[in-house]
Amino acid sequence: MTTLEATPRTAEGALVATPHLPRNPGMPLDLDWVMSAQANTSAIERRAATLPGRRTVKKDWQAAWLLKAITLIDLTTLSGDDTAGRVRRLCAKAMHPVRDDIMAALGVPPVTVGAVCVYHDMVAIAVDALKGSGIPVAAVSTGFPAGLSPFHLRVAEIGESVAAGAQEIDIVISRRHVLTGDWQALYDEMRAFRAACGEAHVKAILATGELGTLRNVARASLVCMMAGADFIKTSTGKEAVNATLPVSLVMVRAIRDYADRTGFMVGYKPAGGISKAKDALVYLSLMKEELGNRWLSPDLFRFGASSLLGDIERQLDHHLTGRYSAGWRHPMA
Fold it and tell me: Which residue, among 274, 282, 272, has the nearest Cα to 249 in the 3D structure?
């Protein structure tokens, strides 16, 4: 089995630890930098359109990339009918994402997902279910998905999630600040959310499908990073339009610009609508080409997904057998 450069191993097959990165501390709001950010929509769309057709991997290489994709998934359940039993089953899947017989046939060590993402009320249950696995729990917060609850309650919700054991907090920004160009308000809001997270890493959800333009996406990305976001994330998964390649290209180039100017590396999380293994491969290609191999690690890249893992497992089975198995043979929980 061929492995990605971004997943180095020792001669015995053990994973080599990824070098620890300093956390993005943020910086004072630089409105000149923010207002200089532009987006050439036609050029962005042309570049994004080249990725699915030109960047493909096959056979063992494809299997290796799909295994890499599993380690980058924030396995998610954000439904109104979530129960403790469903969350525990999802956590079991997170710890054993691919059937043992498939992993044995591939001849590779076990893998786990990047994190499990749940509503605040399910954080303690997920933390208990994942005990000893090393898999962090991420909680959606700040009035997810609309972010329209009173500000003090949004900040308090972050504190409650951290106290319950969440190591990552996915916050939603106030879209109105972007739509009205109130960048100072967005910066101040994001700084308050970052402070409330403490040691927990914060992912800023921009809800890009509701921001109007790609230029707004670029500027909102920069402001959130200046305010100390550890990750910037496309969507809640509840908008009419979620992760797209043009939006992703704008956001990862903002990340690259921020890293070039400040020296701090910020993560990226596309979420919503990424359900097929082939889509995951395209996003991995985007990250590799635009940001490099270092961003193909869980501390800098995640997929927000619920059904993606099932399709990846099915594709790995097909790689071994040459046949597509029924979906029920690859249950999520």
Answer: 282
The count of domains in the chain is: 1
Dihedral pair phi/psi, residue 119, rounded to 5°: -70, 160
231 in a domain, yes or no? yes
Of 68, 93, 269, 288, the active-site residue reads 269
Per-position DSSP letters for 264-283, written without gaps between them? ---EEE-BSS--SHHHHHHH
59: left (phi over 0), alpha (psi -120 to 50) or beta: left
233 belongs to the catalytic site: yes
Selected catalytic residue, list 68, 74, 93, 170: 170
Domain that holds residue 217: 37-325
For helices 245-262 and 277-290, the axis angle rounded to 10 degrees is 30
Residue spans of the chain under pLDDT 50:
1-16
Residue located via tokens 């979530």: 82
pTM here is: 0.92
**Active-site residue flag, 269:** yes
Q: Annotated catalytic residue: which of 68, 93, 203, 233?
A: 233
Q: Annotated catalytic, 188?
A: no
59: domain CATH number is 3.20.20.70
Residue 330 lies in a domain: no
Q: Which helix (H) or strand (E) holds 147?
A: none
* CA separation for the pair 3, 237 (Å, rounded): 31
